[in-house]
Structure formats: structure tokens, C-alpha cells
Amino acid sequence: MNENYENYENYETSATPITKSNYAFGYVFLWMFFGILVTGGVSWLVSASPLLTAVAWSWPAIIISAIVQIVIALSLGKATLLKLNKPLAIGLYFVYAALNGLTFGILFYMLDASELFAIFGVTAGFFALMCIFAFIFKDSLRRASRFFMIGLTSLLIMSLVSLIFWYSNPLLLAVSIIGLLVFGGLTAFDVRWIKDAMDNSDNPSGIAIYGAFHLYLDFINIFMYIVRIYLLSNKD
Prior knowledge:
Layout lengths: L1 H13 L2 H32 L1 H7 L2 H17 L2 H4 L4 H19 L2 H4 L2 H24 L1 H5 L2 H20 L4 H31 L5 H29 L3
Helix pairs in contact: 1-2, 2-3, 2-6, 2-11, 2-12, 4-6, 8-11, 8-12, 10-11, 11-12
């Protein structure tokens, strides 16, 4: 991982603007993959140890983890992130991914390995499809930011309502399907935005971790909504 980072830095100093942008864009997905790998690895470690599971799901750990994740998410916002040095930004990103892994460890108790791998495969395929859409419908996506904000707000409201009517499987399933569609659209929008931002930036590498963090969040949300759809569809 350090070797990749050093190669990235060395390449950045000698590449032409367009080539540099394309190279940095590739690294967005590489950093996203590393984040997912960290989350999956921590999840497996937690599930493999009853002690770690008990600690991870204790109220103090949940509260502390939530607070730290909020602080890191704010730190990885674009305005703040561009002021951070890259090693620090990368470190914060991986801490966030690891903390997510503490929460996701419970999935190994709810689903067996074959089910999790299948859901991960479906998630990866859906995510890849949305990335392709980002280049096919690039002009439409550039004008769609307002609609995605409306979609996110509506999803938040529906999610809060579903907490009240948590016993209604049809409602929970509908919210999960809508959530999947919203974050699918956001994935395409984010990919398009990241590519455009890098093409028009003198320092595309400064956007790489910011972009990786956003795509990581998109991937994780898509994964969780597919998990919910699977569990609700197979609930007796």
C-alpha cells in the first residue's frame, strides 16, 4: 500500500494534466477497494471472537465509535480534506472503514459466508453498472444534483417513519428498495462529479481520497440495502 502511494506521488510530478487526472481517477477506486477490504477484514475478526463481538456491541463502544465516525466524516469533507496532508487523510479514511467493520461484524451471525459473498457480488455488479451509467448519461447526471438531494431527504424521512412502523415488512422492504435506487443514482452522480472535478483541477490527487470516501459510502449503503432486501424477502 505504501509502495502504491509512493508511485502515485512520483507519477504525479511528471504526468501531463489529462494523464494525471486519469491516473488519479484510477486511484479513487483503488483507495475505495482498500477501504472496503479494511471493513470486511475487521468485520470478520470481530465475528471470529466472542470477546471482540461483546466489546464492539457494548453501548460505550457504539457511542464512541459513532462520535469518532462523525468527526472523521466531517474531516473528510472536501474543504477540510484539501487542507490535510495525504497520509493523515488516508489514515482517517482507514480508521473510519475499520470502525464500520466493528458494526458489520454482526452480519456474520445473521448470514452465512456463501450468502454474504453472493450479496457482495451483487453489490459489486450493481455498483459497476452505476459507474458505467456515469459515463453514458454524463450530461443528465450533471444536472441531477437537486433531484438526488430531494431523494436523500425523502429517504431519510421514510427511514424515520419506518422506525415507527418497524413491524411492517412491506414498508421496510419498500424503503430498502428506494434506498438502493437512491444510492445507485448517487454512485453514478459521484463518479461523474469526481471525474469532472479531476479533469478541471490542477491537483487531481487532492480529490482522490475525498472521492474514494464518497464512493466507499455509496458502496457500503448499497450493500446494506441489498442485505436488508434479502433478509426481508426471506423472512418467514
